[in-house]
Amino acid sequence: MDTNRVHGALPDPPSEVHGALPDPPSEGAEGNKEEKAFEIVFADLESVDLPLGSTLRSIYDDQPNAHKRFMEKLDARIRNHDREIEKMCNFHHQGFVDAITELLKVRADAEKLMGQVTDTNRRLQEAGKEVTAQTQEVIRCRMQQRNMTTTVEKLQLCLPVLEMYSKLREQLESKRYYAALKTMEQLENVYIPRVSKYRFCQIMAENLPRLREEIKEISMSDLKDFLESIRKHSDKVGETAMRQAQQHRTFNSAVTKQLNLGHYTKPVYSFNGRTHIHVPNGLLMNNDTGDEEEADEEVLTAQDLVDFSPVYRCLHIYTVLGDRETFENYYRKQRKKQARLVLQPHANMHETVEGYRRYFNQIVGFFVVEDHILHATTGLVTRAFTDELWNMALSKIIAVLRTHTSYCEDPDLVLELKNLIVIFADTVQGYGFPVNRLFDLLFEVRDQYNETLLKKWAVVFREIFESDNYSPIPVETEEEYKLVVSRFPFHDAEIEKQDFPKKLPMSQSVPQIYTQVKEFIYASLKFSESLHRSSTEIDDMLRKSTNLLLTRTLSSCLQNLIKKPHIGLTELVQIIINTTHLEQACKYLEEFITNITNVSPETVHTTRLYSLATFKDARHAAEGEIYTKLNQKIDEFIQLADYEWDMSESDGRASGYLMDLINFLRSTFQVFTHLPNNNNDHASMSGKVAQTACMSACKHLSTSLMQMLLDTELKQISMGAIQQFNLDVIQCELFASSEPVPGFQGDTLQLAFIDLRQLLDLFMVWDWSTYLADYGQPNSKYLRVNPATALALLEKMKDTSKKNNIFSQFRKNDRDKQKLIETVVKQLRSLVNSMSS
Q1: Region labeled Disordered — which residues (predicted)?
Q2: What are the extents of the domains in the chain?
Q3: 456-472 pLDDT tens trace
């Protein structure tokens, strides 16, 4: 071992190590122990596996000068190993020399042998060249044969794939997409996996998803075309379905009337005598029930008008592709959008019935198509989906009809709309859709229909009133009498006993009004047909609508007629007569309604006709208008008065305007003798009308005359004017006492002028002492004279006396009279002041 390497590998020990080692106890024992320790250290150092760190540390941790002694022992150890190596080399050196000598001898033989082998190899190669060439050819041929066999086998595997792919292309070109998808499925699952390692198969496999997407896009495009097609043809489909439903209703009505059989079964609907029911694979199935000619007529169905193959094909394609849910969602979404478009009303739809018919046709066509899809497919359209669409459509339809019918003012159009709604309801009900809300809507439409009828009949009533001459109906012959009685239920024994010609008390408008009320009942009844309501409900509807006609329309027309300026007193009297006869005829209207509905009037909750209040109000209005017009006429005469308030003495006769007024009142009250006065309770009021009118006229005349005297613009009045005024009042009193209207007791009518009479008597007699003395006494002669009234009139006479004072101041009587007037004025003022306080 190289001592320098070992020495170099060992670091110098620190000086503290030697100081730390203990002194050896004895030299002999210490030497043996030290030898054993170094032997262990050398064994450790010579061991390759043990780490040197701990061994070297043990050297330095030993006694002082351990490093030096270790190095000495290490040198001795190295010298021993060198001697052993030298001994070993010396021992094997001769054998090594002998081996080298033998090897040199063999070298020459080896070179000779090498030459012989090389020559033999050369000659062998030259001899085997032809064999090698033939062998290579055989190998090549066998490889080609094997490749050909392999190729044939692989081609036999590939040919079915190519044939299927060619078939797929042909199916795509011929638009047989469902078959193409089946072919793709076979290619993917059966054929392509057999030859999947070939590139062309990989290309095919990569193309198949793209072809599927193309098929989906093409089928979706066909579906969109289908949706557009059914949107265009839904009108025709709906028209056909509604026509069939209408003919079915007609057919059923005819069968019910002719056969009236309880076992008759109502078909789904009928068209030209042919009934139709639903079948799973089609929209309709025909059962011939008519004669041979009807059986030959073609019945159009939804399948005849719409090609459903695109939707079937698209459904199958998406089902095969595992994307059916996407297709169903898309189809339902698009149909919902189309439903909203179909439910949008056309512009000016409310103007003609054709607008409503087109609207209903489109809606029916939409739901007929959906019903067909529901029955022809599985799951594409569910009953829940169609019910949802129908509920949405029903709400929209009701809102649209409610809005548009409010614009309609033609009752004929409303009636046609009602018939359309009934046919529409029957049609969709035949497909299983609930229509109760539609029939509820018809009650609202009925109210609108009644409103339009009321407006129409208001015009009819106004025309009748405007064309009436308001005079009794003249009857010349028996035929004319029967004609009038046939139109109006008039029965009067006294008039029937009279000879022809004769007059009926009512005017021509009464039978016309009665006839028009019956026409109104007929028109109202038309709306109640086909509403699936009981006779009691129809009877109630007719009575309520007739009540509206009487209480609103006819009453309003009568009120407006009475208020018209050109209607005079004679016309008003005739109106009272007419309303009385119309009221009496209302019981015949109730019988007329009963005969139509076959509902007894004694039935509980049967509505009565409110004729009493209607015609009673009209009579009261006419009476009030009579009173008003009489007073207006009196005012017109009063305005003609032209008194000379400063005249010295009267003319000795009544004023001309007043005589004309009295003559007018006499002739007017003679008209009241034409008022009906038979045993009827309502007609017995004729005397009261005449009496009230006469009393009202006299009171108004008395009030007007009193206001004329007390007019603030009249500043002066003479005694002669008082005397002239007294003559006019006397004529009024004579008129009142002449009993212009029978039925007044005693001097009741004269009491209307009592205020004027007592006032004029006070001034004519100049009885101021009695007036002032008896004032406030219940038996006073001038009880009706108010001090303020007497004072106002006396001051007007006082002013007249002052005017003439410069001529009469030298006459003693005039001076005394003037003093008396001043004294009376003071006393009257005192009375007025005491009353006000």
Answers
A1: 1-33
A2: 202-256+302-433, 453-471+507-624, 640-835
A3: 888 998 999 888 888 88
Q: Which residues pair with 287 in a beta bridge?
A: 275
| Token pair for 830 | 């005192």
pTM of the model: 0.61
Contacts of 116 (CB under 8 A, 6+ apart): none
C-alpha distances (whole Å) from 436 to each of 398, 433, 440, 532, 582 are: 12, 10, 6, 11, 40
CATH fold group of domain 640-835: Methane Monooxygenase Hydroxylase; Chain G, domain 1 (1.20.58)
Burial degree of 366 (CB within 10 A; 0-12, 13-18, 19+) = buried
User: What's the one-letter identity of residue 594?
Assistant: T
Which positions ≥6 away from 801 have C-beta within 8 Å? 808, 814, 817, 818, 821
CATH class of 453-471+507-624: mainly alpha
Question: How many other CB atoms sit within 10 Å of the CB of residue 31?
Answer: 11
On the question of a cis peptide bond just before residue 434, with omega within 30 degrees of 0, the verdict is no
How far apart, in whole angstroms, are the C-alpha atoms of residue 400 and residue 345? 7
Distance CA 527, CA 620 (A): 35
For the stretch 287-301, pLDDT in tens is 443 433 343 345 566
Distance CA 209, CA 186 (A): 14
Cα separation, 762 vs 768, whole angstroms: 7
Determine the Cα–Cα distance for residues 369 and 535; give it in Å rounded to an integer. Answer: 37
Give buried/exposed letters for 567-600 (b at 16+ CB in 10 A, else e).
bebebbbbbbbbbbbbbbbbeebbebbbebbebe
d(CA 417, CA 139) in angstroms, rounded, equals 99
